[in-house]
Design a protein that fits this description.
The chain is mainly alpha-helical. It is built from 5 helices and no strands.
Length: about 110
């Protein structure tokens, strides 16, 4: 899912974790699924931001030569205004866009 086109809220939202964990039946497992997806989204966002900011990097950076670059500031502000990765991951989980599996549960089914 493209994190730039998400309909996740920009502010923190209180969630009923019992309601969220109906699919898994375990609150801890639900939190782990959302946390792992949030880490993936955060890594993707970081990679994209670093790639865009690399265009502005110069090879001979001295303290005297560093100046504010308006485009660089705008890019940074854009990424700051995006919803946090945990909010995006939670929204994806609610919408059923996260596919997950639990190998331990699958092993138990195979052993029966």
């Amino acid at each position: 899912m493209d994190y730039k086109k998400t309909n996740a809220p920009l502010n923190t939202v209180t969630r009923d974790m019992i309601e969220l964990s109906k699919d898994t039946g375990n609150v801890y497992e639900t939190v782990c699924i959302i946390a792992k997806r949030a880490n993936q989204i955060a890594e993707e966002m970081k990679h994209d931001l670093e790639k865009k900011l690399q265009e502005f990097a110069s090879l001979n950076d001295n303290l005297e030569e560093i100046s504010e670059n308006r485009e660089q500031i705008e890019i940074s502000r854009y990424y700051e205004k995006l919803p946090k990765p945990t909010l995006i991951a939670t929204q994806e989980y609610i919408e059923g866009k996260i596919h997950y599996r639990n190998p331990a549960k699958e092993k138990l089914r195979l052993d029966d």
